[in-house]
Amino acid sequence: MKLRLLPVCFAVCLAACSGQKPAADNSAQAQAAATLLPVVIHTAKGARRFDVEVARTPLEQEKGLMFRKELAADGGMLFPMDPPRTASFWMKDTLIPLDMLFIHTDGTIAFLQANAQPYSRIPVSAGVPVAAVLELRGGRAAELGIGEGDRLAWGGCAVPAEKVMTDLNFCPAPAP
């Protein structure tokens, strides 16, 4: 009996001593470790800054904020559309409500879907080509007075004094 257990014990000890880190999970801790991009939304009440993750690749955009249990008050996720296109999002496998802001190529909010329902398979779209979609914690836009027509910038254009190093600068022309 003891000889049969020896290979199992050896394997367990080897795994415990290997020094490998566990696979990354989709927790708030993993989210905090991601590189964040500054986004500033200019409203009638003033400017509001968010530091958000960026879903650049098709795979990252497909996954988005699925399976997240929480989202920081000033966090979120930006989905750049290059070239601009008519984007459609759903909430399948998304555990928390989200505000979805569809951004025109001039930097204004074309459409805002407030508190998109978790797990919903109903597509949400602005129905027009957009430069990006920004997802925030559900209800956050209403809390801050953010609405359609408000203007966004991100990257170095959002916070020029900070000299942000990114290739994702979005600098719409100032409103007339």
Verbal overview:
- The chain has helices at 2-17, 28-33, 58-63, 140-144, and strands at residues 37-43, 46-54, 77-89, 98-103, 109-116, 124-137, 151-154.
- It is an alpha+beta fold.
- Strands 5-4-6-3-2-1-7 form a seven-stranded mixed beta sheet.
- A hairpin with a 5-residue loop joins strand 4 and strand 5.
- It is globular, with a radius of gyration of 20 Å.
The first-to-last residue Cα distance is 83 Å
Categorize the overall geometry.
globular
- The strand line-up of the biggest sheet is 5-4-6-3-2-1-7
Mean of residue pLDDT values: 84
Low-confidence spans: pLDDT under 50, at least 5 residues?
Answer: 1-33
Q: Helical segment tally?
A: 4
Structural class: alpha+beta
In terms of quaternary structure, the protein is single chain
Largest sheet: 7 strands, mixed
Compute the CA-based radius of gyration.
Answer: 20 Å
Question: What is the percent of helical residues?
Answer: 10-25%
Number of strands: 7
> How big a fraction of the residues is strand?
25-35%
Helix and strand element order:
HHEEHEEEEHE
Give the SSE map.
Blueprint: H1 2-17, H2 28-33, E1 37-43, E2 46-54, H3 58-63, E3 77-89, E4 98-103, E5 109-116, E6 124-137, H4 140-144, E7 151-154
Parallel strand pairs: 2-3
Antiparallel strand pairs: 1-2, 1-7, 3-6, 4-5, 4-6
Question: Keywords, please?
Answer:
alpha+beta; 176 residues; 7 strands; globular; 4 helices
